[in-house]
Amino acid sequence: MSSPETRAGVRRLGVFGGSFDPVHAGHLILAQDILERGGLDHVVFVPAARNPLKASGPLASGKDRADMLRAALCGTERFSVSTVDIDRPPPSYALETVAALRREWPGASLSWILGEDQLPDLHRWHRIEDLADEVEFLVLRRRGETSGLPGFPGLRLRAVDTRLIELSSTEVRNRIASGKPVDFFVRSVVIEIIEKRHLYATARS
């Protein structure tokens, strides 16, 4: 969870959910873009227990993924990690996450960070109308793309232009499984955890 010192003075909180299996440079660069271009005070990374819209869950445990995130973000003041999802039984519903974060960050307005490719499935999210009442959605839109932001009444969407980063956790896992280096893809402190705990020795796509 985030420290009280980190919470002080935070009025606009960005919620960056995902598997982070593992966290890589693309996640960190996007988070910096979102913080600056989205007008946020702080971004909290929330590793998911299991996405209810995905057939399978993450490869690494929740503890391992949270530890990798904490290592990657160590020393930063405007980024932190919350384990509200992995501390409760799966699947991970965004509405429950928001309720827990409101208790952690009293008084802050919440912006849920969402990839533009997730918009078509947004209507399938658990109790999406109730969630739309609770948060604004910051939609990550790659620079140069001009597609619209479809939605439904009451849904608050705001586009944030971000960099085009062609890097995924799947690629990182597959490189590790095949013995290829990931030095420029993942922070060295994260690589140390991966090697020490023998994570991703075999990787699924």
Task: Provide a descriptive summary of the structure in words.
The protein is an alpha/beta fold. The chain has one domain (4-164): Rossmann fold. The protein has seven helices and six strands. The chain has a six-stranded parallel β-sheet. The longest helix has 13 residues, at 25-37. The protein is globular and about 50 Å long.
Question: Which topology does CATH recognise?
Answer: Rossmann fold
Termini Cα gap: 30 Å
Tell me the CATH architecture. 3-Layer(aba) Sandwich
Number of E-type strands = 6
Overall geometric form: globular
Radius of gyration, CA atoms, in whole angstroms: 17 Å
> If you average the pLDDT, what whole number results?
88
Number of domains: 1
Summarize the structure.
The protein is α/β, with parallel strands linked by helices and 205 residues long. The protein has helices at residues 4-7, 25-37, 62-73, 94-104, 128-134, 169-177, 188-196, and strands at 12-18, 42-47, 79-81, 109-115, 136-142, 157-162.
Key attributes of the depicted protein:
32% helix, 7 helices, Rossmann fold, 205 residues
List strands and helices in order, with pairings.
Blueprint: H1 4-7, E1 12-18, H2 25-37, E2 42-47, H3 62-73, E3 79-81, H4 94-104, E4 109-115, H5 128-134, E5 136-142, E6 157-162, H6 169-177, H7 188-196
Parallel strand pairs: 1-2, 1-4, 2-3, 4-5, 5-6
Helix pairs in contact: 3-7
